[in-house]
Amino acid sequence: MRLIIAEKPSLARAIAAALPGSSRQQEGALTVGETTVTWCLGHLLEQAPPDAYDPALKQWRLDALPILPDRWKLTPRPKARGQLAVIRRLLKGAREVVHAGDPDREGQLLVQEVIEHLGWKGPVSRLLVSDLNRPAVQRALARLEDNARYQPLYRAAESRARADWLYGINLTRAWTLIGRQAGHDGVLSVGRVQTPVLGLVVRRDAEIRDFVPRPFYALWVELAVARGRLRAWWAPGEEHPLDDQGRLLNRAPAATLAERLPGAEGRLVRLESQQKRQPAPLPYSLSALQVDAARRHGLSAKAVLDTCQALYERHRLITYPRSDCRYLPQEHHAAARATLEGACRADDTLRGWLADADFSQRSRAWNDQQVGAHHALAPTGRPMDPARLSATEANVFRLIARNVLAQFYPALVTREVKAEFRILDEAFRARGQEILEAGWKPLFTTRDEAPPLPPLTEGEGCRVGEAGVEDRETRPPEPFTDASLIKAMMNIARYVEDPAVKRTLREHDGLGTEATRAGILETLVERGYLVRRGKALRATRLGSALIASLPDAAGRPERTALWEQRLTGIAEAGADPAPFLGDLVCDLRDLLGSADAGRLAEALRSARGEEASAPTRRRTSAPRRRSASGPSQPRRRAPRKRGPA
Questions:
Q1: Could you tell me which residues are beta bridge partners of residue 471?
Q2: Over the range 296-333, which residues count as b (16 or more CB within 10 Å of their CB) and which as e?
């Protein structure tokens, strides 16, 4: 018997339906001919709790930290024991095993840890399915690979799980115990990824709170030129009081000049014109989709992820959604027309976009060198019937289809013009943009661009009509939203202050993964560290106090971003995981040594931030007060699919 182990029942059903012959249902599996397809239910196994290594560790004590397992153990999740027993029984009759986890780091771990935990020693193949429709699954079944090729991916996922356990268990116990000494009754959760993300919000909120607006002044003139009118802005010289962005800090020079300007004549002394070609935005990765869906439809990151899962599993309208890639395989280009015609034919909006697509175009999106285990989100070709989808599902699907359709539109061609006028021996500047070829732009609602300037010729004269001074103020940074925080997690180098670390980070290095970023935000909200105020995510007093009580490095992204980079090195270059975990343990010892109840007590007293709005407190989330031996470990519900904590 060939045994295929899928990540979840929906994938198992799709695989069974793609096999030749009819399927027969049995307990926890489907049989088709000589092949049996079974499934996991998300993670069937989880990292064993500390007391599995030593019963004494059931009690929380500072003097027992750090907890460092010599030999790592996994334990079945309580609700997964039945399905684990099914897989154990089926393995006894198997001659070969096919690993059919999702095509990502976590999917590799989820199935392979079960195979290894149950002691299978025979051959293992790898099935990579990114589209649950039958023809796509049949093609995947015809291209099985050796699972050994994905061993580095498994080691990276395993290392990530162990790192999260070490970091979360030890620091959460330490800060919860000193929190109790400081008068806080409840668990203070510290995570390898969640805490630096919280730090981003805490620091942004502090910038907003401490911001002192400064006035500045802008002088404008309405100019009549040979073939029209335009508005230009004064560019004051360095003899005037300016800030580091060239803004005028004293109103008097602008007001004095404004009085002299009406009726004054001048000349266009410099004219720059540049034509630009802008290719269509690439198809979406999950995080890029979460950013756009938040901005366009006000959806939280978790809502976008859940919607994509429904479009993938239930409706089978899109390919695998938890992707960090924005490119498509070159072989998909030939079938793109048929795929998009099938996907768009039942929706008026998509049909309109499809009508103007030119399928002879080949954009930069079709690039095998940029495609890893999975590719960008794309329609599968199954027709999208708006009547069968929720409004949110339809909106998200249209975004995904739009970005693929845009690859068959011409580039946006614009002409950008910069003009400098000399009037009363002062410089006045204007800029404008003219769309020469709209290309893909009509598919997108984009911000307003600078309006076009009238036709200009260098050296021509001008005459001032009106002039005025605008009183303005500097503005604080915007609070984080789901969209901007996901974007910050994707491009974390922008928030790294250490120049040496900043140089080592690549453009795509970030915090968390496509599959986990939404969950991290929700976890921070559920634990009372963040609250939503409209679209904004704001830090609570508790979240601010936690960051203030931790060593600075624990609440900043530098360390975690470098750890993520090393995990990528394990996954992609086969690096040895041992040095990564060894260095993490060294960092962990330093962090534990800085746990200070006095510092936490002061942070809790002086913290500023939002009040948590009815936090969801689980009965098991906070340890009861005990004697000096410490509290018992709180039980935690494991997520469906583990990610960075």
A1: 217
A2: ebebbbbbbbbbbbbbbbebbbbbbbbbbbbbbeeebb
Is the pLDDT reported for residue 634 higher than 50?
A: no
State residue 55 phi and psi, 5-degree precision. Answer: -55, -25
**Two structure tokens written together for 75:** 């334990």
- Mapped onto helix, strand or coil, the DSSP state of residue 123 is coil
Nearest CA to 354 out of 374, 371, 335, 337 is that of: 337
Give the number of other Cβ atoms within 10 Å of residue 341's Cβ: 15
Kindly report the CA angle at 325 between 373 and 554, in degrees rounded to 5?
100
SS3 label, residue 323: coil
pTM of the model: 0.85
CA 387 to chain centre: 30
Picking from 294, 222, 215, the residue whose alpha carbon sits closest to that of residue 250 is: 215
pLDDT higher at 386 or 641: 386
Tokens representing 46 are 């989880």
The residues assigned a catalytic role are 320
Question: Residue 212 pLDDT more than 90?
Answer: yes
β-pairing verdict for 530-533 and 228-234:
unpaired
Residue 565, pLDDT score: 84
Helix axes 9-18, 134-141, angle to 10 degrees: 80
Contacts for 18-21: CB closer than 8 Å, 24+ residues apart? 18/134, 18/137, 18/138, 18/141, 19/141
* Residues 6 or more apart whose Cβ sits within 8 Å of residue 558: 496, 497, 498, 501
pLDDT band at 645 (very low <50, low <70, confident <90, very high): low
Residue bearing tokens 């162990």: 162
Strands across the sheet with 2-6, in order? 24-26, 29-32, 35-39, 2-6, 96-100, 124-126, 145-146
First-to-last CA distance in the chain? 39
- Give strand pairing partners of 47: 74
Q: Where are the alpha helices (DSSP H) in 443-576?
A: 482-490, 499-504, 517-526, 541-549, 557-573
- One-letter amino acid at 547 equals I
Q: How far is CA 112 from CA 70, 124, 576, in A?
A: 21, 9, 19
Three-state secondary structure along 570-590? HHHHCCCHHHHHHHHHHHHHH
Mean pLDDT of the chain: 91
- Phi-psi category of residue 459: left, alpha or beta, with phi > 0 → left and psi -120 to 50 → alpha: left
